[in-house]
Amino acid sequence: MRRTVALVCVGIAAAQNPDFRNVARQAGLTTPIPNGGDTSKQFIIETTGSGVAFIDYDNDGLADIFIASGPGSPSRMYHNEGGGKFRDVSQSLGFTREGWAQGVCAGDYDNDGYTDLFVTYWGQNALYRNVGGRRFEDVTAKVHLTQDRVRYNTGCAFIDYDNDGKLDLFVANYLKFDFNTAPKPGANPYCFYRGLAVNCGPRGLPFDRNILYHNEGGVFRDVSDESGVSKPDGNYSLGVLTGDFNGDGLTDIYVASDQTPSILYINQGNGRFVDEALIRGVALDDDGKALSGMGVTAADYLHEGIPSIFRTNFSDELETLYRNLGKGEFQEVTLEAGMGRNTRFVGWGCGFFDFDNDGWPDLLLVNGHAFPEVDGLKIDIHYRDRAILYRNDRGKFVDISESAGPGILERHSSRGLAFADYDNDGSVKALVNNQNEPPSLLRLASKSPNHWIELKLEGVKSNRSAIGARVRVTAGGIVQTAEVRSGGSYLSQSDLRLHFGVGGAVKVDKVEIAWPGGGRQVETALAADRIVAIRER
Amino acid sequence: MLPALLLLLAASTSFEDSFRAGLTALQRGDLAAARSNLEAASKLAPRDGRVWVALSQTYWRLHKDTEAEEAAGKAASCAPEDPAVLQGLTIYYSETHQALKAAQAAAKYSAKVPENGEARERATELYFGAAKPLLDQQKFAEAAVILEESVARLPKSAQLELALGVACYGLRRFDDAADAFLRTIEIAPETEQPYTFLGKILDQIPSRLPQVAERFAAYESAHPASATAYLLHAKALDAQSLSPEMALRLIEKSIAMNGGDASAHFEMGTVLDRLQRFADAAAEFERAAALAPSDAAAHYRLARDYDRIGKHEAAQAERDKHAQLVKAQEAIR
Q: Which residues of chain B make contact with A342, given a CB cutoff of 8 A?
């Protein structure tokens, strides 16, 4: 049954077109992030990197920036200096490794109060333990996360799937790739795009399996087989999204898969997962076709109390919005929701964020084709392309990209996308990883007069990052829900704090928290326009 | 070509003997004499386009392609507005298989003689002939350039507008494609193809949907015996999420006229799904799947609806069929 909450909102500032600007240069984010060829790409590995993250690694209340990089530069950490400025602290914090970094996800795996960072690679992954906010230590081998072979690891997420208070780790794997054996452009029918010889794959390249590591308290153990996570064996996995999609209090895992059915691992509660994407309607599009899933995000975009799923796909495919009808049964509603026209883009990073704080989560997608060679076709599909911004108009999405400011219209070959209110002014900003260019940092030229609240949760019995906590906020006659998530978008990590726009409301009537450990907590009458820290009781 | 060239003999005095002798020789196939006389005439009147166009023909027959091209170029530059020269160039470029140049010359000629319907028809055919091989080879960008030029020079041609729509469709310029198809309908409302093409891109042209729905409704009214017309009108309504009940009625009419059209049953199932009439939708997808058993989408949608009405075993069977079909299609690819 569909649950529609019909409520009246008062005092919400009228919708105006936003004016997003790219302030990366002013913020100090000027270094290009290398990622394979710029005019031609010989191998698929050059097409998929990389993610970005907002994490407050030193607990100073200001979200810092991490940017994963391809070879030619180490991945970079930028400290938030305040005043909208960032400083490159990669070397001093211990980020010196170069390689094909792909995804990034954050969580306090050792519950020491400092957020740790996991970076996926083609090659060995890296778990960076945050040592008191002063440096990061690569503890991959020490915690038993070294892999026995080269793998093409992509999306990742910390997840407490057994609710024992210790964060486990899910890692998606794209395919099996080896520079020495991978076919060259034009070598077989999977190495062409619209008649152009391009890098091969994913079709034609061997599948690999996803991995789940259980946190055993200090070390991790690969439980992929016993949990059932390794069972799906015909998927090219990229973006990872966690959430309680069927409302049973257990965190499930959705994996956007390229050219193959996407996966929805439903947590059975006994340490096992079963892929139920097909029967729940989130594996394929409405016509039963597997699309090229890249990035994925979720939101309660209709105020129904349950998360729906949005996925970015390849050009000539619709982006996909799966509405959660309740209990984890989904219906594709892309066209009905007002989307579906933007089929020229290859979409990657995506995320719901309430840019105007009206209480309705809007949606940003960043784009860029996989093949630089496509520009030679002189059609409307481009290697570098603009972003797409949808305003959520009470459950219908309106494409306002063309009038949303120069930051949205800039053309890049973008991949990762993450969100944070990095200067704590109540307006959420977006960080974008652009292939072979400096990142973009998108912020509004002037923020909405609407009100907001931001929640920083801290687990006690639950994992300290509160990952998996589900929050229900009642303000201004609207009830919104959200969940603290690790990973998401395209191989990226947004700020772990939850942001809610509350329209004209100057106070939040009620905040209800369902902690992953099972506890329930209610806070009432909180003033709006502030960041509120809530510790698990 | 020669009768046309003989008409060129109208007014020249200083070089008329040479020109006439050259044309006569060309007509009787004495190419050496034609060449010498026409070259002599060209020296006497080097800016006379008529001589150059005759020379182009002569050189071409002598297999002197470079000289022929040069002569044709001079004819075009010396007498760009001369109807007779344009007519001669049309023939020269047609015979030398230079379709686009022939079309351009023919269109210019047609513009000089607007009362001449045959000239316009010829120009239209030549433009279409220049673009069609490119469309067949899916060189849509090149085809679109030619066709955009063609509709500017020869407005109100349904054939060219339709072809332009196809080129734009191939280029994913969906709004431009829709506009071209709508213009085609305006010119030739009885032609079914533009309606069919528009029916395929409804999801991509939200800003054109009201206009398209209007056209589809008119087509349906004008063709009360056409199953396709009812179905298209229903699709246009459905694409706008408008009047699902009316869409159902239209599809019912379409099915009543042609119950063997799987796509009509599929569309009916889609509308019924939107209305959350899942059992009825399943019945329609059953029919669609029976009529087109290799259509993977019908089996997938059927599985979804079976699940919704609690027929889980039947749903699994349909999922299995869907998976088999997808696998078979991938093998073919």
A: none
* Closest CA–CA distance from residue B162 to any residue of chain A (Å): 20
Q: What's the gap in Å between the CA of B151 and the closest CA on chain A?
A: 21
Length of chain A in terms of residues written: 537
Residue of A nearest to B276 (CA): A1
Residues ≥6 apart with Cβ < 8 Å to A461: A165, A515, A517, A519, A536
The two tokens of residue B124 are 């239209």
Calculate the dihedral angle through the C-alpha atoms of A12, A400, A239, B316, rounding to the nearest 10 degrees: 90
CA distance B215 to B210: 9
B331 membership: H or E segment, kind and range: helix B312-332
Q: What is the full per-residue pLDDT of chain A (537 aa) written as tens digits?
A: 333 333 333 455 556 789 999 999 999 999 999 999 999 999 999 999 999 999 999 999 999 999 999 999 999 999 999 999 999 999 999 999 999 999 999 999 999 999 999 999 999 999 999 999 999 999 999 999 999 999 999 999 999 999 999 999 999 999 999 999 999 999 999 999 988 999 999 999 999 999 999 999 989 999 999 999 999 999 999 999 999 999 999 999 999 999 999 999 999 999 999 999 999 999 999 999 999 999 999 999 999 999 999 999 999 999 999 999 999 999 999 988 989 789 999 999 999 999 999 999 999 999 999 999 999 988 889 999 999 999 999 999 999 999 999 999 999 999 999 999 999 999 999 999 999 999 999 999 999 999 999 999 999 999 999 999 999 999 999 999 999 999 999 999 999 999 999 999 999 999 999 999 899 999 999 999 999 999 999
Cβ-nearest to B203 among A278, A340, A380: A340
CATH topology of domain B114-204: 1.25.40
- List residues of B whose CB lies inside 8 A of any A CB: 138, 140-141, 171-173, 203-204, 206, 239, 241, 274, 296-297, 299-301, 304, 307, 315, 319, 322, 326, 333
Tokens of A98: 């170069």
Q: Which of A379, A397, A398 would you mutate first to test chain B, the one with the most B CBs within 10 A?
A: A379
Q: Do residues A253 and A265 lie in contact, with contact meaning Cβ atoms separated by under 8 Å?
A: yes
Q: Delimit the CATH 1.25.40.10 region(s) of chain B.
A: 22-97, 114-204
Q: Give the pTM.
A: 0.88
Instruction: Give the gap in angstroms from C-alpha A131 to the nearest C-alpha of chain B.
Output: 50
Q: Are A111 and A166 in contact (CB under 8 A)?
A: yes
Which CATH fold topology does B22-97 show? 1.25.40
From the list A288, A341, A379, which residue is nearest B300 (CB)? A288
